[in-house]
């Protein structure tokens, strides 16, 4: 009788454990994925007779990849200001007073057809009581350089298709992978776009007034490859994969493009192995090909979870 009671208790615990895992996955699947396509003003700074306006998708800075569009106009005339050498530097300060940045384009590129300066920022955390973000912007007008700064709010990114991951590679360098597209995948073969960035460790102490850009420098890595193995890790899915996926390689825009084939909606894990330009593995492990129903799927050492 005692043996039977023990077996029933074990069975009950196993059922409860599986139910708990499944419930967590079902709760995630109920999440509504919102796709944003319109750029709106998220920040405006009036200084030196100029209005510096920054636009981002949905008028919000989100944790993760953000395309930045910056415009400078005359406050009185509302006309475009012929500015040059626009720089953009986000700085995060934590509760201990330590300063860090995130992958970003420091020198913004002017797009004459659309009359704005283009860049990006990959915010690595959201604003909270312990971490605050501030933008440091400089620009030149008629050989005179102006500098402005403004505290900003970075919001949580609820869309898991735009997740990011930060890690230290086998070369002891700090890397960042940010998902950029698709925002809202289809049950089909989807073009998968990501940015891969590396922190440039400072070689000299800071100089001049804070912040010294050389202490907060990041680059888009060149010639790397992201080997891709998408799986459905939910126990009921058995960690199965899908056919016709393509590894991510760098294209002319500096970003990494590949193909991920989602055969159904739900929770997916993008298992990754990152290779440098010489084909050496910097992070990631191969995922076993076993079908594992009832067990949460194994993941690579390097992975990003998504949901649609």
Give a short overview:
By secondary structure, the protein is mainly β.
Total tally of structural domains: 2
Radius of gyration of CA atoms, rounded to a whole number: 23 Å
Please state the overall shape, judged from the principal axes of the Cα atoms: globular
The CATH topology annotation of the largest domain reads as: Immunoglobulin-like
Give helix and strand order, one letter per element, not per position. HEEEEEEEEEEEEEEEEEEEEE
Q: List the uncertain runs.
A: 1-23
Based on helices, strands and strand pairing, what is the structural class? mainly beta
What is the average of the pLDDT values? 91
Q: What is the first-to-last residue Cα distance? A: 48 Å
Give the % helix.
Answer: under 10%
Q: Number of helix segments?
A: 1
Biggest sheet features: 10 strands, antiparallel
């Amino acid at each position: 009788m005692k043996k039977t009671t023990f077996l029933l208790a074990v069975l009950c615990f196993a059922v409860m454990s599986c139910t708990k895992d499944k419930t967590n996955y079902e709760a995630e699947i109920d999440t509504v994925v919102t796709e944003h396509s319109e750029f709106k003003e998220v920040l405006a700074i009036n200084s030196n007779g100029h209005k510096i306006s920054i636009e981002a998708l949905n008028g919000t800075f989100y944790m993760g990849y953000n395309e930045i569009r910056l415009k400078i106009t005359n406050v009185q005339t509302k006309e475009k200001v012929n500015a040059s050498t626009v720089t953009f530097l986000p700085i995060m300060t934590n509760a201990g007073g330590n300063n860090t940045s995130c992958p970003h384009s420091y020198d913004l590129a002017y797009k004459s057809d659309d009359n704005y300066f283009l860049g990006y920022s990959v915010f690595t955390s959201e604003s909270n009581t312990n971490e605050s973000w501030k933008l440091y912007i400089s620009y030149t007008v008629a050989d005179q350089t102006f500098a402005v700064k403004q505290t900003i709010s970075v919001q949580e990114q609820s869309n898991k298709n735009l997740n990011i991951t930060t890690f230290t590679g086998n070369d002891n360098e700090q890397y960042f992978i940010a998902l950029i597209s698709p925002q809202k995948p289809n049950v089909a073969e989807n073009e998968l776009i990501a940015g891969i960035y590396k922190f440039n460790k400072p070689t000299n102490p800071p100089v001049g007034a804070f912040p010294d850009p050389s202490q907060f420098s990041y680059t888009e890595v060149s010639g790397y490859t992201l080997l891709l193995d998408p799986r459905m890790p939910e126990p009921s899915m058995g960690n199965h994969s899908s056919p016709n996926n393509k590894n991510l390689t760098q294209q002319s825009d500096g970003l990494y493009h590949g193909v991920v084939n989602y055969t159904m909606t739900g929770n997916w894990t993008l298992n990754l192995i990152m290779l440098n330009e010489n084909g050496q593995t910097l992070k990631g492990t191969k995922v076993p090909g076993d079908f594992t129903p009832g067990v949460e799927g194994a993941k690579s050492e390097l992975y990003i979870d998504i949901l649609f």
